[in-house]
Amino acid sequence: MSVKGKKVLHMDRNSFYGGESASITPLEDLFKRFNIPGSPPESMGKGRDWNVDLIPKFLMANGQLVRMLLITQVTRYLDFKVIEGSFVYKGGKIHKVPSTETEALASSLMGLFEKRRFKNFLSFVANFEESDPKTLQGVDPQKTIMREIFKKFNLGQEVIDFTGHSLALYRTDDYLDRPCIEAINKIKLYSESLARYGKSPYLYPLYGLGELPQGFARLSAIYGGTYMLNKPIEEIVMENGKVVGVKSEGEIARCKQLICDPSYAMDRVKKVGQVIRVICILSHPIGNTGDVNSCQIIIPRTRTSTSPLCFSDIYVCMISSAHNVASAGKYIAIASTTVETNNPEAEVKPALDLLQPIDQKFISISDQYAPEDCGSDSQIFLSRSYDATTHFETTCDDIKDIYKRLTGEEFDFAEMERKKQDTFGDCAE
């Protein structure tokens, strides 16, 4: 908005960047936040060595957030490291996720004949172009459901599980009865992201996710935006049903439009679920991953016996001192899933079992909220709460939705990229 010439004032009640998705430092502050008595043990090193994300997320290397960062040139303020592995849990073991035809043939997830069928499926997906009938093989992208595509290639249930949940990154099986183009595009995104760096499709910023909002704040400042931390919000001021300002410490900052997360306007949101996240400090890499310094593991719910009532996958993210977020020799693993029972901790037990022994864990159960209306009448535009996924694709969808509600226009990547040189060509900090 600053780059487009809007006057932007960003107020945050917190003393740190990122709000709900902040990176907490030093480690002592994390202990206080979770009401853990005492101080961190000396074995965990210096508190300032730690930057612990409250909400784990990776960036898809070819995904929407990376495109946004490149277009806006926020990347000038950030350094990234490739996540070293992407795995799926099956049959009590951790397996590398196969996403190319070569990996499919070498994978231990499938038998010989299944490998050949899966290879043909991946070849079909890689070549699939909605605008080119020659690549469709008789498939209607909008009418053929994904279940029929899997049947077309005679893929078994276990292959369908890891394809839908570890490649397309769906949390449930609802996608099976939706137009196949949606899942095909998600699988292509995974494969294209993997092709950029080779080890996995994911990137992670050095010093933690808290670097992302700082980068955007610095860019906004270049174009006249003002960022105020530690600024309490007392009231959203309305006149005739429309927002006209925000009251803080007895003063009113006037505005025509307001963007905020659900916590600032609880009377305008509805609860849509809960997410449990368990932050674990380890003195070892996760077993059976090749001792990598970072990885993602997806545990499809169909592979666990937690509860027959649970359908959402469990995610595990691991990062380490290699990313400047932990002391030397230490690792941070975060398990998360959508809450579906009255015993959330039992729902993530399959993930915690993979992480043993755990030096210290911090458990949070967060309510998820969604705006009750689009905001066009009040001009208050609310975001959705972060979900359990460990990538930013759903968050970027929410950002684009807010942009459309705010401006009345679609967020057009192609147009933004065309304007990139004119807007940013000569700017300097």
TrEMBL record:
One Pfam family linked to the record: GDI
One term of GO molecular function: Rab GDP-dissociation inhibitor activity
Top-rank taxon: Eukaryota
Membrane-protein topology: Peripheral membrane protein
Cell compartments where the protein resides: Cytoplasm; Golgi apparatus, trans-Golgi network; Membrane
UniProt keywords, alphabetically: Acetylation, Cytoplasm, Golgi apparatus, GTPase activation, Membrane, Phosphoprotein
UniProt-listed PANTHER family: RAB GDP DISSOCIATION INHIBITOR BETA, RAB GDP-DISSOCIATION INHIBITOR
Quaternary structure and interacting proteins, as annotated: Interacts with RHOH. Interacts with the GDP-bound inactive forms of RAB3A, RAB3B, RAB3C, RAB5A, RAB5B, RAB5C, RAB8A, RAB8B, RAB10, RAB12, RAB35, and RAB43; binds RAB3D to a lesser extent. Interacts with DZIP1; this interaction negatively regulates the interaction of GDI2 with GDP-bound RAB8A.
Primary role: Regulates the GDP/GTP exchange reaction of most RAB proteins by inhibiting the dissociation of GDP from them, and the subsequent binding of GTP. GDP-dissociation inhibitor preventing the GDP to GTP exchange of most Rab proteins. By keeping these small GTPases in their inactive GDP-bound form regulates intracellular membrane trafficking. Negatively regulates protein transport to the cilium and ciliogenesis through the inhibition of RAB8A.
Full protein name: Rab GDP dissociation inhibitor
Source organism of the structure: Neogobius melanostomus
